[in-house]
Protein: Probable farnesyl diphosphate synthase
Amino acid sequence: MTPSTSTFSARLNEAAKLIEANLEALLADNARHGEIARPARLMEAMRYAVLGGGKRLRPFLAIEAARLLGMEGQGPLRAGSAIELLHCYSLVHDDLPSMDDDDLRRGRPTVHKAYDEATAILVGDALQTLAFEVLADPETDADPAVRSDLVLGLARASGLGGMVGGQLLDLSAEGRYGAITMKEPDVRQLQMMKTGAILTFSVEAGAILGRADQDARRHLVEYGRALGAAFQVADDILDREASAEALGKRTGKDQEKGKATLVDLLGLEGAKRECRELIERADAALDPFGDKAQTLREAVRFVVEREV
Structure:
């Protein structure tokens, strides 16, 4: 392990611990101001969906992008937590029988298996709305314009033109709404929307909190897009090369459903070459920030080289 990789791992682990503690506090049983009550079953299932799993990559990106611009503390931590809440909602709903119909997530029964489908739907709904509540709260940032920018950005990244729209395209790719042939541009658009949009916004959230100027924000968004694309290509490679036990979820789902991925279209070696090119693109986007961006440089390598 090189010194830079060691520093990156320490930063990632530190951020994960801080995010975990903040998520625990946000998912406490006690009702907050303006709430009537927090039903015990719902809170238990929400904690099951969110706590004790995952690398917390998305909040880490928000925290590190803000740190790059000199902003640390509660703001990036809360924004990162909001993004993670929304990400976990998407996983709960993705796993439902009407969507991907998965029984395992992070090596444990999915929420609809551990509880039931109705509870899983409500867990996703509650996590999504809580994410926006956290961003809109003055505790996240005293400037209402910053909070508005964060809410707008997450809404667009997660909504019909981003993650949700990408999920519809993903279902279409299975042939649910008629036969379809997915070409390379179609696959890239699907992946950019379903997975890439939230990863890109995670970086942009840090830029917003750090009061980045127009050029700095543009460069960070370019970096986020390259990282988001690399994440999905690497995920497709893992789906072919890793075991279900290692990943903690079922593998080979796209092949079973006849759904094309970039691995299918580019070949395994072509997909790996694309990952290397995306690392170079991410590096180039960070060039204006010099050595201060080393942790973010390591993040894209981590995304590509991860084994789970």
Remarks:
- The chain has 15 helices and two strands.
- Strands lie at 104-105, 108-109.
- The mean pLDDT is 92.
- The longest strand covers residues 104-105.
